[in-house]
Design goal:
This protein is α+β, with helices and mostly antiparallel strands. About 25% of the residues lie in helices and about 35% in strands. Helix 3 (about 130-140) runs antiparallel to helix 4.
């Protein structure tokens, strides 16, 4: 299943416009709180750029403002393209429930060149709709020498776990508490159905 859900607050008022062919669009950014705390006990946020189109864009422009809480639902897609300066750029796209394609832009600026090949691998398997729990296993299996890449890899795994459908079995993984293979994903965490132990991140 390919489904993503973002819940967050607008960081600024929406910006509106239209293409040369007259299709309306609405751009805004949302702050999405992470479901775990950092080393200082603080919950950080991810800032995600959203573009909506046509009727949905008109409704967003009419009803949303800075601080509005929104829930964005749809299918996740990835897009790679070459910018005007010749550098490769990466965006995530999702199709909302009305069938419109919306873009989460600027993902490429988050990637150091050192990580691009791994980012392209992950982007490719997501594009071909590999189940996200399998993508997590793929990322986990990467043997990387650089400490910075391993830190990035762990961050990617944590991010992907948020999109695994609740109740999905973690095949081949044993509960570190009771040893049973009864782990399932729940809100990005692994929960043991036998003893109730949980592990997030």
């Amino acid at each position: 299943m390919n489904k993503c859900i973002f819940v967050g607050n607008l960081t600024r008022d929406p910006e509106t416009g239209s293409t040369n062919s007259g299709i309306s669009y609405c751009r805004f950014s949302i702050a999405v709180n992470r479901n775990y705390a950092n080393a200082n006990g603080e919950r950080e946020a991810d800032f995600i750029n959203i573009v909506t189109w046509r009727g949905l864009a008109d409704n967003c422009a009419r009803y949303l403002q800075k601080g509005s809480k929104v829930c964005v639902c749809g299918q996740l897609q990835t897009r790679t393209y070459e910018g005007q300066d010749g550098t490769k750029r990466y965006d995530f796209q999702y199709t909302d429930r009305y069938g419109y394609t919306n873009t989460i832009g600027g993902i490429s600026r988050l990637f150091d060149e050192e990580f691009w090949n791994y980012a392209k691998l992950i982007s490719g398997v997501l594009r071909w709709r590999m189940p996200i729990d399998r993508v997590i296993k793929l990322v986990d299996s990467l043997q990387l020498d650089s400490e910075s890449i391993n830190t990035w890899k762990n961050g990617v795994e944590r991010a992907l776990k948020k999109y695994v459908t609740d109740g999905t079995k973690a095949d081949g993984q044993k509960c570190p508490n009771c040893g049973h293979e009864t782990l399932v994903y729940q809100e990005g965490c692994l929960i043991c159905k036998t003893c109730g132990a949980s592990r997030c991140g």
